[in-house]
Amino acid sequence: MAYNFPVRDVQYLLNHAAGLDRLRDTGVWEDLSDEFLEAVLGEAGKFADNVLAPLNWESDQNGARLENGKVFTTPGFKEAYSQYVEAGWNSVAFPEEYGGQGLPNTVALAVVDAMQGACISFAMGTMLTTAAVKALLAFGSEEQKRLYLEKLVSAEWSGTMNLSEPQAGSDLANIKTKATPNGDGTYNIKGQKIWISYGDHDMAPNIAHLVLARLPDAPEGTRGISMFLVPKFRVGEDGSIGQANDVKIVSIEEKLGQHGSPTCVMAYGDNDECLGTLVGKENEGLRNMFVMMNAARIDVGMQAASVGEAAFQKALEYANDRPQGRKFGVKSGPAVNIFEHPDVRRNLYTMKALTDASKAICFANMVAYDLARNAPDPEVAAAAKEREELLTPLSKAFSSDRALETTNIGIQIHGGMGFVEETGAAQFFRDVRICTIYEGTNGIQGIDLAGRKLGMGKGKLAYDFIEEALANAEAAIASGDDDLKTAGGHLKREAERLKETTAYMVSAMSTNHEAGLAGATPYLDQFGYVAGGHYLLKGALAAGSEDKYLGGRKHIATFYCENLLPRAGGFAPAVMAGEDSVEELDVELLSA
Amino acid sequence: MAYNFPVRDVQYLLNHAAGLDRLRDTGVWEDLSDEFLEAVLGEAGKFADNVLAPLNWESDQNGARLENGKVFTTPGFKEAYSQYVEAGWNSVAFPEEYGGQGLPNTVALAVVDAMQGACISFAMGTMLTTAAVKALLAFGSEEQKRLYLEKLVSAEWSGTMNLSEPQAGSDLANIKTKATPNGDGTYNIKGQKIWISYGDHDMAPNIAHLVLARLPDAPEGTRGISMFLVPKFRVGEDGSIGQANDVKIVSIEEKLGQHGSPTCVMAYGDNDECLGTLVGKENEGLRNMFVMMNAARIDVGMQAASVGEAAFQKALEYANDRPQGRKFGVKSGPAVNIFEHPDVRRNLYTMKALTDASKAICFANMVAYDLARNAPDPEVAAAAKEREELLTPLSKAFSSDRALETTNIGIQIHGGMGFVEETGAAQFFRDVRICTIYEGTNGIQGIDLAGRKLGMGKGKLAYDFIEEALANAEAAIASGDDDLKTAGGHLKREAERLKETTAYMVSAMSTNHEAGLAGATPYLDQFGYVAGGHYLLKGALAAGSEDKYLGGRKHIATFYCENLLPRAGGFAPAVMAGEDSVEELDVELLSA
What we know:
By secondary structure, the first copy, chain A, is α+β, with helices and mostly antiparallel strands. In chain A, about 55% of the residues lie in helices and about 10% in strands. The radius of gyration of chain A is 24 Å and the shape is globular.
């Protein structure tokens, strides 16, 4: 199958749905013209389509393997990685000072979109390298920056994030890995880490591991965790690669998907010779890690949506190529392609609408992220920061949940062939399955939304968003376009219903946590559907529909509002069902 | 993991939700006491738990393989199969005349439930043998019955169904396999068939293939298809196994799941020496196959729900064993098991509620099936036949769609471990994926519901059901139990909304097919949720809640009505969105 990164669709979403102009208005990125963007995304698309996509199936069938303590990646990955580094795809949003291109993170996210859709197993690794860059940019010492940043910005070296341990997954308070100061500014690191993506591989000469660990005198719980930079090979004063650093790969996981991405169990300091240096201040490791988490969660949301797009393209191609059945009531004659059947088109439009709604949320999220850090007007920056905070759990959870549905439909459209691995439809379904789990399970995203985000200003972040969605709905209703009017009516109804559940949740979380927590996931679901409708409809209103392409975009947006957005209301009773609804039943009698 | 077939839950569903008493009332099965049922299901459960369940993981990792034209099954399958035959599990609902036990199909379905939950790859094979028995019972000649039935009833020999060909999947009108009469009552069969589950294996000495093929002078399309009985080895007059019958296994598929169930590409008559005999009348093969299809579709629905139960049990065990995090707001102290978190309980209750709702629909469906064939009162039988027809697409599609969700949540509860194959949670998710596809894709179930079933009496089947659900809702509202009252309110609202969409669909299907077909899938979704709520609530009302066990059942029912049933309403706008909503867009511009 040929994957084609949909440059035009992405530009449409960036410009019309996500408000890229607001970044242009900051004056920080004066050269960010449509032509420039098209050129960047066009080149990223070429790389994704021609270099990465052809490796995707191979990455599944011939995934990473561990031999004699070393991880070997899928044949072709190493060469593709060199080209990726050479072309500078890793450095899009990083400072020019370290070899970066100084573009907005939003543009980098569009580049991520291209790569993830082509080969998620490959792009998973570079996503973590960019996270490591962000950590060092924010908290690294001058020495750490001098020795590592340029290498990581280019991705000549790669980076990893080491949080989980067997007893500490979602709950990082339980981290036990130890860091003992040596008195010379270095620390001895000792402990086991799990779920380390690209903990080892053969594509880069060195790897910078960011590791959460405890100092000897650290307080218990989350306030006693520090972050350390632990290289695979020690690095000399001149940046040269030195001796191996007592970092052992214990095993790699046999996973449902993403076979090309090695998920490592790591042993640090088995021989007490693992040296690391402190990143940021002592005992602030978790807090610092969470500073990066927002961007990483948006990345994961986009990653999932990107795979959804790839699954959509594959299903669309099949639907236009597979003759089966005739139109309803026609008893004889040749079979028509299944695209001719209304139910198959419903499936395809659902895939595209969910994918683009997810991408629109992620892009709007990253525009807010960039604005929060770059808007000259402090009020604009503060409002953007709030929007970033609100949208992050939605980007992560809604996109990944919907990508499960999208890739699932992709299999369905293929019929029996979809269940046969060789077809490739099932790979998307397997690969994307982890996205609802890592970087904080979607359950935790729900708690983040209900607990932390609604807690800011008694629901202010949510109410501000809802008012914006209502204004958007009113604009659609008043647009004079019948389709947009219908869509606007759906958005208005669902936004109003979201206001009601928001009031319930704000109250519940401040008076009865258990009731609020019981409603957190359906609230997240409901909110996600409304957010998707808001951004797609905003895009359709802003872009107009004067040509066939824009007409198609408008149709996807109105299809979403009429067919998918109403699901939001279906979650509302569950949001408000209260703690009794999930009371603790006798476990022995739950299945008897 | 230990799987335990939940005998008590199944008896509860049979008695209180599905109305097993109506079968007792026919007088046909006078011995069908609760004690007897418990004994049968208890024994089936023991077999499933102790013999089949331990093979499940092995069936995934060490699936069927093709060597030198022969299929070898997972180690242990052969021995388990012998025990299955020996114990008589295949013969539950078949006539005593052929060695069967003469019990209702509903009881056989409960036995199927036990087996499928333990090891779907194993139980898939015997499910097809029972379908072959039904075909021969209904349409076989005396000779065919004499030579085959006893062997197939016991499952000493196995059976297969051969419908699909590469160009004829959902659309069987395109079948090309040829049957040429030899003048002696036999036919030469020639052609290729695909998706043949257990087309070959090493567990039985002979296999009876039921094959759809065309006679030389057959009309085109579906009216020119006949059914043939084609044995793997020819059978002598005395029932002895003779020479091989020119049936070749071309290949077996590498599938996403059900690795233990060989899915074969079959070549019949490559050497023009494949002999078969006609089953039923010429050119009536497809019609006859569809007579069996109803039962097979209910079986598939149950199969999916059974896997959902297994996934639930595994997730429940994990949730009670995995400490992670503290209660909200508690900053220190030991971690609690994740069952303590409201969101995890929501996930678990959702799994169980969807599973039991699905099973309730399937059991009610099979009670109607049995009643239709056994009720002494012709009016009762006719009404039951209508209910059977209505529920069949719901059993098949709702159960399989929901099992995808259930097994998906099962992975989610395991967190990162869920993505690791060794955990086993992912196997359920992979194995069950095919259930939305085979025996007619769920899209086709939607068309069956909207086209054929609503077409009977201008929606009478649906309206009759809705009135029953409304009466049930009123009874719950009037019950004096607050929880049931709330649940009844939800059922009432959703049943009324279903009445509206039903009126729309009945009208659309008779005046504008495209609009009706565009709404078929969301209508099926909506109907399925309402049906699940109806049967669970009916069960809770009938059973009462006087002890802890019944209280738990009631809670699952009311949880469903408050948290999941409202999703039904979320589909209603999509049902009525009309044909414009899925208008044919320019394919080139759908992803650009």
